[in-house]
Design brief:
There is one protein chain. The longest helix is centred in the middle third of the chain and has 85 residues, at 397-481. The chain folds into four domains: 2-184, no CATH class; 194-267; 272-425, 2-Layer Sandwich (Beta-Lactamase), CATH 3.30.450; 526-677, Heat Shock Protein 90, CATH 3.30.565.10. It has helices at residues 2-21, 25-54, 59-81, 103-130, 133-162, 170-189, 195-230, 235-265, 272-283, 289-304, 333-341, 360-367, 397-481, 490-521, 533-550, 570-586, 632-637, 645-655, and strands at residues 87-91, 98-101, 309-314, 320-324, 349-351, 370-378, 381-388, 529-531, 554-557, 566-568, 593-601, 604-610, 659-665, 669-677. The chain is an alpha+beta fold. Helix 2 packs across helix 8 (235-265). 63% of the residues lie in helices and 12% in strands. A five-stranded antiparallel β-sheet has the order 4-3-7-6-5, with helices on both faces. A five-stranded mixed β-sheet has the order 9-11-12-14-13.
Length: 681
């Protein structure tokens, strides 16, 4: 946007000068049209610039932009293609050139021109009211400059030309050049721009315009002299061709003078955008804070021609990091604290030669060969960027502004690196804790494994030792019940039957523990031989009938008439059948029936025990066959249970290649059983 305004101003100035000096009516008419069209473009771009500075892109603002562009386009088209619009006639006179203007269209043009200027001034003024201090000064200077240019420009180049007075038209050229110098001087005093930068830009445009004007008049004079002798070409045509030719070479000429003035007045120049890009790449090139600071120091030293650059950073943990260019000064911690605590300086950037001659802070900086210090105090970062003496002319206001802006980026990068380092420290601590905890767990697991092994050995040994006397007890009770020791009374028989059933349960429990122990030690083996499963079920049911009658239950089983002989581990299958049936007896309600069934379905044998007892809660059914697990209602109904019966049943059926059958509804009963593939002998 700013480039467009500058180019339009340059074209406007050239058009004025060429119009004033034209000796051809056609040539003067073309330059007059160009002069008014470029003036419209300038104020339109100024209005758009004001909107962009305001940063308001709402619907009504877009409408203003569209209207501005539309009106400017219409005016430009009418001015270009309508002969009588604004400029009705051009007069070449001995006292000077002037135009004859159309009153109505010139009034519209003037209203548009003034409206755009007023709109721009009001918009920028509104932005100034909301701007921060530094931006407010910049905008005030810019607005003052525009008003200084516009006021004499409107009088000399719009109002007076309407009355055919072009004697002061040259004042527009002088006003623009003076404005560039004035604004550059004011801004440099405010340390917003470097004065050399303003001088380079101004001098480049002035030299470019002067060069083009000299070329134009030289060529026009030469060609006119040559062709006027032969009387071949009209001078107006020659002037028009030369003008368009000069417009085509304006940009190359300006680029040449930009480079020339830059080389002379700006030998230490650097591209700010490229510097920021390089610094940002350096800041993200590594997560090692010291290495990052060293790389940034080298980049700053190279760009700003500093003898030395180094950082001093204080972390939250009280540690200090000093990093910079090769053989840089290392500031003592007390000196760093003195810089922060010194009440003499409140700004972010401290320049030694701007401090008082006998200032303690200046003496400190000189003693360490430091010419410039940038404070880093935000986002929890406390630190300094220290630059040594400048190798050429000294640090300029532009350098100070760039370093101040760079410090914000650097602080963010330092904070990110410190955060990453904290995360690394936490990770290292966690890894150490995890390693310690893992070692402790392994030690405890080893101890638990030893204890578990000792427990298994004890259970195995105790089970073997208990089974022998229990077998004897069970045998003697059986002999007494059968009358081998003489006649017994009914009461004695009842007591002996209870004792016999208790010994049976004890033997069953011991067998369960032995099997669990064998599973733990890998000694659980299935020894198959030919078995009549129908007879085994019948025997187990008959053995449990006294227990069922004692609990006022009916135990029904109908033995199949024919049944295949199967390859099974009879002892373990008996244990499963007894366990399912015994559980049904213990967990069923009185005066109910337990149905035991054995049948063949397709190629499988299916055994099931159905009861109408307490059932198993749905939430606990998935864990029912886990070792030592017992349902909540089962623990209440039978506190002496062990929780290994169903666990062993699953292991036995799995070892036979079968599948468990289980269905249950809490409070309505359960079905336990298994299905085995038929393998007839």
């Amino acid at each position: 946007m700013a480039t467009g305004i500058v180019y339009s101003l340059a074209l406007w100035l050239v058009s004025i000068l060429l119009f004033i000096q034209s000796s051809s009516t056609t040539e003067a008419w073309i330059f007059a049209k160009t002069y008014y069209i470029t003036a419209m473009i300038i104020v339109a771009l100024l209005a758009l610039f004001a909107i962009l500075v305001k940063g308001d892109y709402r619907q009504n603002t877009r409408f203003v932009v569209y209207v501005t562009i539309s009106v400017m386009t219409i005016f430009a088209l009418l001015t270009t293609f309508l002969p009588g619009f604004i400029v009705t006639k051009v007069v070449i006179g001995s006292t000077g050139n002037y135009i004859v203007a159309d009153s109505f269209s010139y009034l519209l043009y003037s209203a548009y021109f003034i409206a755009m200027l007023v709109f721009s001034a009001i918009t920028i003024l509104g932005t100034i009211m909301k701007a921060k201090h530094k931006q407010k000064i910049q905008l005030l200077v810019f607005l003052a400059g525009c008003l200084l240019m516009a006021t004499p420009g409107i009088i000399a180049d719009i109002l007076l030309p309407y009355s055919q007075n072009y004697h002061l038209a040259w004042f527009g050229f002088v006003a623009v050049v003076a404005l560039m110098g004035l604004v550059g001087y004011i801004l440099s005093k405010r340390t917003m721009f470097d004065l050399r930068l303003a001088a380079v830009r101004t001098l480049a445009y002035v030299l470019s315009l002067a060069f083009l004007i000299v070329i134009y008049y030289s060529l026009a004079t030469t060609i006119s002299n040559v062709f006027s002798i032969n009387g071949v070409v009209d001078q107006g045509t020659i002037g028009m061709i030369l003008a368009f030719g000069l417009l085509l070479i304006f940009q190359p000429v300006k680029s040449f003078f930009d480079k020339l003035t830059g080389d002379v007045l700006y030998r230490d120049n650097y591209n700010t955008d490229e510097l920021f890009s390089r610094i940002n790449r350096t800041l993200t090139s590594t997560s090692d804070l010291r290495l990052m600071l060293e790389r940034v120091s080298l980049e700053i030293a190279t760009t700003f021609k500093s003898r030395q650059v180094f950082f001093f950073i204080e972390t939250d943990q009280g540690r200090h990091i000093s990093a910079g260019t090769f053989k840089h000064v290392v500031l003592p911690v007390d000196d760093v604290r003195f810089v922060f605590e010194n009440s003499e300086i409140h700004s972010k950037v401290i320049i030694a030669n701007k401090l008082k001659p006998f200032s303690p802070l200046r003496r400190l900086m000189v003693s360490h060969n430091i010419e410039l210090i940038v404070k880093l105090q935000q986002l929890g970062v406390n630190g300094l960027i220290c630059l040594g003496e400048h190798l050429n002319t000294g640090y300029k206001s532009r350098d100070v502004n760039v370093l101040s802006a760079l410090s914000d980026e650097i602080v963010i990068a330092i904070q990110n690196n410190l955060s990453i380092q904290q995360v690394r420290d936490v990770n290292e601590t966690l890894q150490q804790r995890i390693a310690n905890a893992t070692r402790e767990l392994r030690s405890r697991n080893a101890t638990l494994s030893e204890l578990d092994k000792a427990k298994d050995e004890f259970v195995s040994m105790a089970s073997h030792q208990l089974r022998t006397p229990l077998t004897s007890v069970k045998g003697y009770i059986s002999m007494v019940l059968e009358g081998d020791a003489g006649a017994i009374t009914p009461t004695q028989k009842q007591f002996l039957e209870e004792a016999y059933m208790s010994s049976e349960r004890m033997v069953s429990l011991i067998n369960d523990f032995l099997n669990v122990s064998r599973l733990q030690t890998g000694k659980f083996m299935v020894e198959k031989h030919q078995v009549d499963l129908a007879k085994v079920v019948e025997q187990e049911v008959d053995g449990l009938l006294p227990n069922a009658r004692a609990r006022k239950l009916k135990l029904k089983y109908k033995k199949p008439k024919t049944f295949p002989i199967m390859e099974l581990d009879e002892g373990k299958i008996r244990q499963v059948i007894m366990n399912f049936t015994d559980n049904a007896i213990y967990y069923s309600h009185e005066n109910t029936t337990i149905n035991v069934s054995l049948e063949i379905k397709k190629d499988r044998v299916v055994f099931m025990v159905k009861d109408t007892g307490i059932g198993v809660p749905k939430a606990e059914q998935d864990r029912l066959f886990d070792k030592f697990f017992r349902a909540t209602n089962a623990r209440t109904a039978r506190p002496d249970g062990t929780g290994v019966g169903l666990f062993l049943a699953k292991k036995v059926i799995d070892a036979h290649g079968g599948e468990l059958i289980f269905k249950s509804i809490e409070g309505k009963g359960s079905t336990f059983g298994f299905s085995l593939p038929i393998k007839s002998a």
